[in-house]
Write a structure and sequence with these properties.
The complex is a heterodimer of chains A (306) and B (334). With 306 residues, chain A is mostly helical. In chain A, α4 packs across α10. Chain A has one domain: Orthogonal Bundle (MetI-like fold). The radius of gyration of chain A is 23 Å and the shape is elongated. Chain A has 11 helices and no strands. Chain B is of the alpha/beta class and 334 residues long. Chain B folds into 2 domains: 244 residues, P-loop containing nucleotide triphosphate hydrolases (Rossmann fold); 80 residues, no CATH class. Chain B contains 12 helices and 12 strands. In chain B, the strands form 2 sheets. An 8-stranded mixed sheet of chain B has the order 6-7-8-3-9-10-12-11, sandwiched between helices. In chain B, strands 2-1-4-5 form a 4-stranded antiparallel sheet, with helices on one face. In chain B, a hairpin with a 2-residue loop joins β9 and β10. The longest helix of chain B is centred in the middle third of the chain and has 18 residues. The chains are: A mainly alpha (306), B alpha/beta (334). At the A-B interface, α8 and α9 of A face α3, β6 and α4 of B.
Chain lengths: 306, 334
């Protein structure tokens, strides 16, 4: 099955093929792909291992980028306060950022879709409870929800586990903070589809409600959820960076882009600008590319906007 | 209404609660309000026969169809199928043996087939649900057989619904309804979304299948020409009740109830182009606040005092069943 056929099976049409005719989304897609590949291959691409204390020398600390005055040929983007290669840190940090971003989007999408589709199909008190819970959560900023959840987990977990579980806590906290968006959209789709006669035909036969939700409603939900997930990925990466910047995210032993920016923030005013600047640049580029891609996907899949 | 009906309904009622916001109701001290979509319907259909349910939009005819196949649970009354009680609130397992024997064909052939499913999976849905085939091969063979029965080809099984025309889609819908070898089909305006030329083909197919499999139909329609062609008996519905029920030939030759007369009068007739017509004025009464007495009295040219206060019951008259005070008292010429 070709790519086009797969896309058609997924969305009911293959307008995604228009990507090649739109330069900005094309560039965004290319950059996203590049970042994904870089993150995936980071351990092999990185010129140094910034987490091996044996290769770190304090004499290399605070080296500016290679092209600046006093730069060192070994460190393209310079080093941080511990003498760690910044380029390697960014590549490995992006891995953490993307891992947390993608995993938390998955958590949001699964929770939101399950609750949204079931609320739309079942209706009644259950629907009211689910959708009001979503409304209540939406009144609280997502980052506050994630901050609270990760704070609770830190106090609840035994001390020795906190660092090991930090990434998982982060994924769950960001994931749970994002489900209402998915629930709202998928409930809407489920409401529209459930009133169609093919669902009535299945009910006349006595098909189990779970099977109706999975086989009849879920396929209609995949398109919109994919769009939300792409836009949500950018939000999740920023949320992760914010939490890490605030010190409740990725631990310093496995730093994400946010951790790197926080670290560099301490030296911003003493002249070592590159420690905060390059991780920030990577973050902004990645988020912008993912966002553009998501916007384009939303417009393409929404026939009303064309 | 002959002996040994396959499908029987007694005192069937369906109320829908109006969705007034709960808080508004509490503040305004108003009780919950209901729409009386079906307000006491009795009917019975003999095996192998076709009962047509006709009426204007909103008269409750589709709701009756949905009640009979268990898509909705009745608010009151009971449904008997082949001598056994059919209660839509019973468990899924308990209902399965009866559900296998009743199916439904829908109006919109574009909404009644899941656009993401292949035709073979659409038609095999009842086969899978009732575990009627034992192997993949048997399933494929049954689907091919069904496609041939409705005038399509076995190769169509691999296609998607959007590759078919409206009439062909309705054939697929019929094939799905036949898959579990049912006895009873509720056909909810199966031809009204189709072109006239295609309508005739679908109706012919339905009549052929009825003869071949001894099917029993409840045929819901507002198209009197179609009803005249396919129905053995006709029940005229108005505001949730049956006003007249008669053998088809009798009803079209000599309508009794004033509403039926007006309804038949609105059918265009090419031989009587210059006849004077009395147009049916007014609207169907609101099912939220139905008028007291006979629901039709605000529009009835023969209405008198009793019609405004007392609801007429369905009574045998002249070989038919009619609910009309005027006819009973002989005020309306037959």
């Amino acid at each position: 099955m070709g790519v086009r056929a797969a896309i058609r099976a997924l969305f009911g049409h293959d307008r995604v093929g228009g990507l090649t005719r739109a330069p900005a989304p094309m560039a965004a897609a290319a950059i996203t792909l590049l970042f994904l590949l870089a993150a995936l291959l980071a351990p092999w691409l990185a010129p140094h291992d910034p987490f091996d204390p044996a290769t770190l020398f304090l004499a290399d600390a605070f080296l500016p980028p290679r092209w600046a005055e006093g730069g060192d040929a070994r460190f393209l983007l310079g080093t941080d306060d511990q003498g760690r290669c910044l380029l390697s840190s960014i590549l490995l940090g992006m891995r953490i950022s993307l891992l947390v971003g993608i995993a938390s989007v998955l958590v949001s999408a699964v929770i939101g879709t399950v609750l949204g589709v079931s609320a739309g199909y079942i209706g009644g008190i259950y629907e009211t409870l689910v959708m009001r819970a979503a409304d209540v959560q939406l009144t609280i900023p997502g980052i506050l929800v994630a901050l609270t959840l990760s704070g609770i987990a830190r106090t609840a977990l035994p001390r020795e586990l906190v660092e090991a579980a930090a990434i998982w806590v982060l994924i769950l906290a960001i994931g749970i903070s994002g489900w209402p968006h998915y629930a709202r959209v998928t409930r809407g789709v489920a409401l529209v589809e459930k009133s169609k006669d093919y669902v009535a035909a299945a009910r006349v036969i006595g098909v189990h409600p779970l099977r109706i939700m999975f086989k009849h409603l879920l396929p209609n939900v995949i398109g919109p959820v994919l769009v939300l997930a792409t836009i949500g990925l950018a939000v999740a990466i920023i949320a992760e960076s914010t939490l890490s910047f605030l010190g409740v995210g990725a631990p310093p032993t496995s730093p994400s882009l946010g951790t790197l920016i926080r670290n560099g923030n301490d030296y911003l005013f003493s002249g070592e600008w590159w420690i905060a600047f390059f991780p920030s640049l990577a973050l902004v580029t990645l988020v912008l590319a993912v966002n553009l891609l998501g916007d384009w996907l939303r417009d393409t899949l929404n026939p009303k906007l064309r | 209404m002959s002996a040994l009906p396959l499908v029987e309904a007694r005192g069937l009622e369906k109320r829908f609660a109006l969705a007034t916001p709960w808080l508004d109701r509490i503040l305004a001290h108003r009780p919950r309000r209901f729409v009386h979509a079906v307000a006491g319907v009795d009917l019975s259909i003999a095996r192998g026969r076709t009962l047509a349910l006709v009426g204007e939009s909103g008269c409750g005819k589709s709701t009756v169809g949905r009640l009979l196949v268990g898509l909705l649970a009745p608010s009151a009354g009971l449904i008997r199928f082949d001598g056994r009680d059919f209660d839509a609130r019973a468990g899924r397992r308990a209902l399965a043996p009866l559900r296998r024997r009743m199916q439904m064909i829908f109006q919109d052939p574009y909404a009644s087939l899941n656009p993401r499913w292949r035709v073979r999976d659409i038609i095999a849905e009842p086969l899978d649900a009732f575990a009627l085939t034992r192997s993949r091969r048997e399933r494929m063979e049954r689907v091919a057989e069904l496609l041939l029965q409705v005038g399509l080809t076995p190769a169509d099984a691999e296609k998607y619904p959007h590759q078919f025309s409206g009439g062909q889609r309705q054939r697929i819908s019929i094939a799905r309804a036949l898959a579990s070898r049912p006895d009873f089909l509720v056909c909810d305006e199966p031809t009204s979304a189709l072109d006239v030329s295609v309508q005739a083909q679908i109706l012919n197919l339905m009549m052929d299948l009825q003869e071949k499999f001894r099917l029993t139909y409840l045929f819901i329609s507002h198209n009197l020409a179609v009803v005249r062609l396919i129905a053995d008996e006709v029940a005229v519905m108005y505001a949730g009740r049956i006003l007249e029920c008669a053998p088809s030939s009798l009803l079209f030759a000599r309508p009794l109830h004033p509403y039926t007369r007006l309804l038949l009068d609105t059918v265009p007739d090419i031989d009587r182009r210059h006849r004077s017509r009395s147009p049916l004025a007014g609207e169907v009464p609101s099912p939220i606040d139905p008028p007291p007495g006979c629901a039709f009295h605000p529009r009835c040219p023969w209405a008198f005092a009793r019609c405004r206060s007392e609801r007429p019951e369905l009574r045998a008259a002249e070989g038919a069943y009619v609910a009309c005070h005027g006819l009973e008292e002989g005020r309306i010429p037959v």
